[in-house]
Amino acid sequence: MLKGMISAIFLAVACTFLYGQQPSIATFLKGEAPVEIIPGMFTTYRSDKHIYWEIPDSLVGREFAVTTTILTAPAHPDRDMEKKFGYSGDMIGPVFFSFQKQGNELWIMDPQYERVIENPEGVYAKIAVQRGNGRLYKRLPIITKTQGSSLVEIGEILKDFPLFTLDIVSFDLSIGTRLREKDSIKEIKGYDNRLLIHASRAYRSSSMRMPGKPVSSPYIGDWDTGICIKLLSKKPLEAVTANAGTYFTIGKECFQGDQPAIRKSVVKRWRLEIRAEDEERYMRGELVEPIQPIIFYIDRNTPEKYIDCIMEAVRDWRPAFEKAGFKNAIDARLAPTAEEDPDFSIYDSTYPFISWKISGQNNAYGPTPCEPRSGEIIACHIGIFCSVLNLEQKWYFAQCGANDPQAWNIELPDSLQFEQIKQVLTHEVGHTLGLEHNFLGSSHYSIDQLRDNDFLSQYSIGSSIMDYVRCNYALRPQDKVDLKNRRIRVGEYDKWAIEWGYRIFPGKDASEREKNRALWNQEKQKDPLLHLSSRMDVRAQAEDLGNDHVAVNTQGIENLKYLCEHPDVWNVTDKTSLRVLQGRYEAVLEHYKQWVQHVLSHLGGKRLAEPDEEHIYIPEKADYNKKVMSFIQAYILQPPVWMFDEKLTAKLEIDGSREFDRFYEELMSEMIRSLREVERTENVCEGMLSVDEFLESIHKELFSEWADNIPVSDAKYKVQLLYVSKLAKLLDRSEKITSSKLLVSIMQALNRIKEESLDYSHKITDPVAKKRVMFLVDSIWF
Question: Where would I find the EcxA zinc-binding domain in this sequence (predicted)?
Fold first, then answer.
C-alpha cells in the first residue's frame, strides 16, 4: 500500500511537470493511475495493465545490446550432464536492435554490419548499398509524442518478443514451449545508459526421444531471468584488422568501388582507452591506467577457499597488459552484496561475471560476446563447473603423479587445487580477452628445458596458456621443480598477443596506426615463440608437450609405469577411494593412448616450412620417423602388461583382460591408420619412410619370438592376432584402398607371416604355442 501511495504522489508531481513540458503524455497516463514512473535512458511508465517507454528522439538511430541472464533454472529431471548451458549465471546474447521512426510508428530494427562500403563508387558497391543497413524486427505504434520523444506500449513486447525471452535458445536449453500466460515482469530499473528487467518465464519441456535414452515425462519449469538493454557507444571502438590467427574475429564483406567484395576480419577485444593527459606518457613507454579497466566480479556462490586463487588467475594477465602499456588493466573482485552496492546485478552486462556452477559437467567456458560494428567485447560471463576439479585431479595424477606424491592423495591438498583452478580460469579469461587456442604453444621447449626449474620459472612449460597443455609430464620422479612449474602459465606468446591486439600504436589516423602495428609485428615474428600455426602442423597438437614428441612422451609413459608399479599409489580404503582410483586408472589408459597418438601423427605428418610461408608445409622425414618406429616397437608392439597386472586391476575391481582388449583395439586401429598415412606420403620427396620399411619394422619386433623359437606371451599373442586381422581387413573391398602398391605390400607382409608361422609351428615344442600359431595361420584367409 505504501508503494502505491508513493507511486501516486510521484505521478502527481510528474504530471505537474509534464503538463508544463509534455502535456500529451501526462494526459494519456491520467487514465492509467496508479502509475510507477521509472527514470532512465527510456523513461518507463508502468501500470497494472501496461508498460510504456518514452523514447527520446536523441536515441532514435542509436544501437542497443540485449543480454538475458538465467538467474534461477528449474531442476531438470532429465538434465543432460553433457550440456554446458542452462544454469544460473549463464548469459545469452548479446542481440542488437535500434529504433527507426517511420511516420506514426517506431520500428525496432536489426542493424546489419557484415558489409562495409569503403568506396561507394562502382557497380558492386552501389548494389551493396541498395540493400540498406537494417532488417525489420517489429513495428510499434506511437501512442503519443512530444517535441522530443515518443511514447510506445512495450509490455507485451517485453513478455512475448523473442529478443527479450529464452525462445531464441529454447532448443539449446531443451525447454520446449513457453507458457505465455505465466510470463511476469517482476521489476524494472532504469539508468542513464541501460535498463534492467527482471522477468520470470515458464516453459513446458519437450519430450523428444533421444537415441539410447528413455522418453522423459513432460514437466513445467520456471525460469527466472534478468534482461539488460544497454546503449552502445556512439563512436565504435577503432577496429583492428585480424592477422592469420591469434584472436577470435568478426568477418565482413568489404566493398571498394568497382571491385567484387573481399573478405576482411576484425579482432574481438575490450575497449581499453587512455585519458588525453596520459597520451604523451603512454607513447614514451610509461605505464598508464586505462579509463575503464576490465573488472570481473566473482559469484558469491563460489566456495570461499577458491576466491583468492580466482582473483590471482585473472590478475595473471596483468603482465601481458603491461607489455601493451596498461597498468592495472584487469582485475577481479567478489561480487558485492546489496548493502555494499545496491546497483550491482549479475544480469547487468556492465559487470563481467565469473559464475560458479554446481554440476557434473567437467568443464569451464569463456565466451567473447561482442558488438558487430567493431568487434568490441561488451559483456562476458565465464562459467566454471565445480566438477572440473574431478578432471583436473585425474590429469595431474597421470601427468605429474610420478614426480609429486601429493597427487596420490584421494583428496588433493588445497595448494594443488588452487593451481588447478588458476590454470583453468586463466585459460578461460584468455578467451574472454579475445584469444583463440594456440596449439603450437606447447611445442617449443626441449625435454631438458622442461626439467630445469630456473628455465621453467622464467618461461613456463609452453609459450601459451591458450594451448591445450596442462601439466609437466616431462618431469622424472627425482626432478625438483616448484609447484607453479608443473603447470602451464601465461607465456611469451600470450604477452605478445595481448600487446598486438591492445596496444595503441602511434599514427594520425586508423590507417597509419594499422601500418605501424603491422611493422611492429613483422619484427616480433622473428621470434618462433610468438608463432601460431594451424592444426595441419604436426607440432600443433592438443594435450602434448615439448619439441620432441618421442622423447617427452616416452618419459610420460615411463612415469605411468612408475605409478602402476608403485603399490602405495593404489591404496583402496573405502568406496570413495575406490571410485577415485578407478577414475585415475582410466586416466592412465587414456594418457597412454593419447601420447602414442601424438607420436604416430608424425607418420605422414607435416610442419610449416618457414614462419613467413603460411601455406607451405614440408613432410616429416624418415630420420625422425625412424625414431617413431622405435617408439612403436617399445610401446605398442611390446604390450604394457604393467597397466593390466591383476594385482592392480583386482584391487580396483576392474576386468584387466577386457580393458586390455579394448585398449589394443584402439591402439592397433591408430597404427594401421598410420600405415595408410605412410603410403600417402612416401613418394612426396626424398628421404621419406616407406610402407615396406614400416611393415618390416613392425614384423621384426612383433614376431621376434618366432626367430628364437620361444613361446609368445599371452598379451603379445593377442597383439599379433589383432595386427593380422587388421592387415587382412585392409584387403577387403569395404576399405576402398585404391593403391595397388599398398595392397601388394600388405599381401606380401601377410604371406611372410604365414610362412614364418608355419616354420615356427614345426620347430616349437610347446603345445599351447603350437596351437596358437596354427590358429593365427588359419586367420589369414587368402
Answer: 411-707
Instruction: Report how far apart the first and last C-alpha atoms of the chain are (Å, whole number).
Output: 93
Indicate if 543 and 416 belong to the same structural domain. yes
Q: Cell for 647?
A: 594385482
User: Closest Cα to residue 487, out of 390, 584, 420?
Assistant: 420
Of 508, 529, 547, the position where a domain reaches its end is 547
Residue 63 pLDDT > 90, yes or no?
Answer: yes
Q: Within this chain, do residues 520 and 650 fall inside the same structural domain, yes or no?
A: no
Question: Is the backbone peptide bond immediately before 23 cis, with ω within 30 degrees of 0?
Answer: no
H or E element, residue 691: helix 691-702
Q: Is there a single domain that holds both residue 305 and residue 233?
A: no
Residue 265, H or E segment:
strand 262-267
Cis ω for the linkage preceding 94 (within 30 of 0): yes
Q: Are residues 533 and 643 in the same domain?
A: no
β-strands 194-204, 220-231 pairing: antiparallel
Q: Which helix (H) or strand (E) holds 598?
A: helix 575-600
What pTM, to 2 d.p., does this model score? Answer: 0.92
How many domains is the chain partitioned into structurally? 3
Percent of the chain with pLDDT over 90: 74
Q: Is residue 216 a part of any domain in this protein? A: no
What amino acid occupies position 328? N
Decide if 702 contacts 727 (C-beta within 8 A): no
Residues 698 and 749 in one domain: yes
Average per-residue pLDDT in the chain?
Answer: 90
Of the listed ranges 33-37, 106-110, 326-330, the least confidently predicted one is 33-37
Can you spell out the DSSP letters for 150-214? EEEE-HHHHHH-GGGSSGGGHHHHT--EE-GGG-EEEEEEE-SSEEEEEEEEEEEPP----TTSP
HSE-up of 752 (CA within 13 Å, CB side)?
17
Query: Domain of 730?
Result: 627-779
| CA–CA dist 219, 223 (Å, integer) | 13
Burial of 574 (0-12, 13-18, 19+ CB in 10 A): exposed
- For residues 317 and 456, membership in a common domain is answered with yes
**CB contact set of 721 (below 8 Å; sequence gap of 6+):** 775, 776, 779
Judging by DSSP bridges, how do beta strands 294-298 and 330-334 pair with one another?
A: parallel
| Domain edge (last residue) among 515, 547, 579 | 547
Decide if 261 is inside a domain: no
- DSSP at 484: G
Q: What is the dihedral of CA 699, 703, 706, 708, to 10 degrees?
A: 90
Q: Residues 502, 636: one domain? A: no
Could you tell me if 245 and 341 lie in one domain? no
Distance CA 533, CA 540 (A): 7
Evaluate whether residue 66 is within a structural domain: yes
For 463, residues 6+ apart whose C-beta sits below 8 A from its C-beta are: 438, 440, 441, 442, 444, 491, 492, 493, 494, 529, 530
User: Is 560 within the bounds of a domain?
Assistant: no
Q: In this structure, what C-alpha cell is assigned to residue 304?
A: 570461499
Q: How far apart are CA 659 and CA 646, in angstroms?
A: 11
Helix residue ranges per DSSP H, 68-209: 123-130, 155-160, 170-173
Residue-wise pLDDT for 506-530, tens only, equals 999 999 999 999 999 999 988 989 9
User: How far is the C-alpha of 78 from the C-alpha of 74, rounded, in Å?
Assistant: 11
Tens of pLDDT, residue by residue over 381-408, are 999 999 999 999 999 999 999 999 999 9
DSSP-derived secondary structure for 526-544: TSGGG----TTBTT--TT-
Residue 535 pLDDT: 72
Distance CA 525, CA 338 (A): 49
pLDDT per position as a tens digit, 573-619: 999 999 999 999 999 999 999 999 999 999 999 888 766 666 788 88
d(CA 360, CA 653): 23
Distances in Å between the Cα of 375 and the Cα atoms of 354, 434, 521 are 21, 9, 21
DSSP 3-state of 780: coil
Lowest mean pLDDT among 216-230, 314-328, 704-718: 216-230
**CA 267 – CA 284 distance, rounded (Å):** 26
Residue with cell 605409478: 563
